[in-house]
Specification:
6 helices, about 140 residues, mainly alpha, elongated
């Protein structure tokens, strides 16, 4: 009986993380596809001063975010989770780098820690091929 409960709790834990990560990346992806004005302006801080180039880059970012959301939700693989950790950390850190308070970074810790938790739940891959599947 205990094994069944643990297995059910594990599945519940996994799905809570998958849904949460997907929601975060869908939200950011949609904002990016809409060309969120603040985000376009942030590109200038990193050498992209042409707003049209920034809009194109933001479109690509939005598509990538949506792809990550769908992968994590429907067929989670470790490489997508690793990307979500790195990208979530970078986009959270970006806020203070463009002049927002450090609290904007701290508020977004879940953007990278939730994918990190799911990656830890699945386990670090034992081979290069392990990055491209959920289980070793």
């Amino acid at each position: 009986m205990l094994t069944v409960v643990v297995k059910m709790n594990s599945k519940f834990f996994e799905w809570v993380l998958r849904i949460g990560i997907a929601g975060e990346f869908i939200g950011h992806g949609v904002f990016a596809l809409q060309g969120k004005k603040d985000w376009i302006g942030w590109f200038a801080n990193f050498g992209v001063s042409d707003p049209e180039v920034a809009k194109t880059l933001l479109l690509l970012v939005g598509l990538m975010d949506l792809a990550v959301a769908l992968i994590v939700l429907f067929k989670p693989i470790r490489i997508a989770l690793l990307w979500a950790v790195v990208w979530g950390f970078w986009t959270a850190l970006l806020r203070p780098l463009v002049g927002m308070p450090i609290w904007d970074f701290i508020e977004r810790w879940a953007n990278w820690s939730a994918p990190l938790a799911l990656l830890a739940f699945y386990g670090w891959p034992k081979s290069l091929g392990g990055w491209f599947r959920k289980n070793n």
